[in-house]
Amino acid sequence: MEFGAFSVSLNVKDIYKSKSFYENLGFQVFGGNIDQNWLIMKNENCIIGLFEGMFEKNILTFNPGWNENAENLDSFTDVRDLQKELKAKGIKFLSEADETSEGPASFIIEDPDGNPILLDQHR
How does pLDDT run across 49-80, given as a tens digit for each residue? Predict the structure, then answer.
């Protein structure tokens, strides 16, 4: 099962302090908009998202169709197909992608400890 690019989306209290902290660890801004309270930061192949006031918990995030540089992959498993496969395995969903749609879509599942996992397809 291929989920695409992986990142950790962090719920931060102060995006400016968090940005500075992660820059001190060698991360650089890769995307996002600090004026909208979100940034994507990267250090080699490690990707983190900083999100102030957008969700309650930290989230494991996967992006089907993208590599770690947010470049489109030639071949990937559509998020709706991943959803069907996980449903067949009895995985519980917090939110679901519309299986009749095409293009961008997402779903959220939760691990046994309550950690949210977002599969977010952008194309």
Answer: 999 999 999 999 999 999 988 899 999 999 99
**Reduced to 3 states, what is the DSSP secondary structure of residue 41?**
strand
Q: Number of folded domains in the chain?
A: 1
**Contact call for residues 66 and 5 (beta carbons, < 8 A):** yes
Domain extent for 14: 5-121
Per-residue pLDDT tens over the stretch 15-34: 999 999 999 999 999 999 99
CATH code: domain of residue 117: 3.10.180.10
Tell me how crowded residue 5 is: count the other CB atoms within 10 A of its CB.
20
* Angstrom distance (rounded) from CA 93 to CA 107: 7
State the burial class of residue 105 (Cβ atoms within 10 Å of its Cβ: 0-12, 13-18, 19+).
Answer: buried
What is the band of 40 on the pLDDT scale with cuts at 50, 70, 90?
very high
Length of the chain: 123
Residue 77 CA neighbour count, 13 Å, CB half: 14
